[in-house]
Amino acid sequence: MHDRIPRRGWLGGAAAAVAAAAARGGRPAAGGKPDLLTADFPPEPDPPPLPITDTHVHFWDLAKFRLPWLAGEPLLNRDYLWEDYLRATEGLNVVRAIYMEVDVDPSQQEEEAAEVVARCRRGDSILQAAVISGRPGSERFAQTMRRFAAMPEVKGVRQVLHGAATPRGYCLQAEFVRDVALLGELGLSFDLCLRPGELGDGARLARECPGTTFILDHCGNPEVFASDLELWKAGLGAIARHPHVYCKVSGIVASTRGRRWMPQDLAPIVDRVFAEFGPDRVIFGGDWPVCTLGAPLGAWVGALREVVRNRPLPDQRKLFHENAAVAYRLR
Ligand SMILES: [Zn+2]
Questions:
Q1: What is the 37 CA–ligand 1 centroid distance (Å)?
Q2: Does pTM top 0.85 for this prediction?
Q3: pLDDT confidence bin for 41, thresholds 50/70/90
Q4: Structural domain boundaries of the chain?
Q5: How far, in Å, is the centroid of ligand 1 from the Cα of 118?
């Protein structure tokens, strides 16, 4: 009987085995005859996979928070709790996690931040820090951010800018730029989530705010199966020229939405990100549960391990674990 492709599709057959083995840190089993010289000995256990700092974890309890954008995402429109995330990461060696704001109704932003800070402070899990939601340029932004910046668990701020409702050039308005510069003065970073055609706006914002650390989410949002990546490549090059911008290797599997894909489908994007940002400015983000639109978290991690497996081991460690501590100032 043939393996059935899962309803929403992700990896098929051999690719899934490769990805699963890579997720464990091991090699896929080689075909062919058993090695008679070692047949009497137990197989060597797989080495533990490289540790992961997941810089982009979402979870939400719809009894507490309203997420208006979920109305357009029926597959994600239910509770996703921290405990569900822990189940999704079993065996992946995720040792640190950073909460990423979930674009709640703006009236609930402070409540969302306060709740996740309290959860971090319990100290009973790998959840260490948070990037909270905010609206640079809004009236109470400076006051609110001064308060949250005093909390060591809060590392940065994000406002998603890639939705259809955000006009072009939004992040270049004077009040927006002023408040993003303020974040740098407060020791906070800003996560940039832009449409690929507007990465040039992000580059200009970075130039205007030299004291703020930026993290470009989701590789700049290219689509894995896009017919033309030239606009994205040009924008990526423009923003990567600014040394205070990091690139988060995240999000891209969600763009495959129902199409079957293989690790090598991700490689052109990941390789381009490495070429532009270099090994010291790339950081891994799982983007669970949004990644499940394209694959389970374990398959995404396994595929990325496969894509970077020929890079020097120290560079792999930087991508999955070490650069995050620099970009987000983790302890
Ligand atoms: Zn996300």
A1: 49
A2: yes
A3: low
A4: 13-22+47-327
A5: 21
